[in-house]
Amino acid sequence: MQLDFKVRQNPALYLKDPESTEVGKSIVTHSIKMIYEIGYEKFTFKKVAQEIPTTEATVYRYFENKHRLLIYLIDLYWSFMEFQVMFHLNNVPTPEEKIKKIIDILVWEDNVGQIFTEFDQKSLYYIAISESSKTYLSKDVDENNKEMLFKPYKDLCASIASVFSEYNPDYPYARSLASSIIEISHFQYFFMHHLPRLCDFSKNKNPKELEAFLESVAFNSLKP
Amino acid sequence: MQLDFKVRQNPALYLKDPESTEVGKSIVTHSIKMIYEIGYEKFTFKKVAQEIPTTEATVYRYFENKHRLLIYLIDLYWSFMEFQVMFHLNNVPTPEEKIKKIIDILVWEDNVGQIFTEFDQKSLYYIAISESSKTYLSKDVDENNKEMLFKPYKDLCASIASVFSEYNPDYPYARSLASSIIEISHFQYFFMHHLPRLCDFSKNKNPKELEAFLESVAFNSLKP
DNA sequence: TCAACAATAATAGTAATACTATCAACAGCA
DNA sequence: TGCTGTTGATAGTATTACTATTATTGTTGA
Question: Could you check: is the Cβ of residue B65 within 7 Å of any atom of nucleic acid strand C?
Answer without folding.
Answer: yes
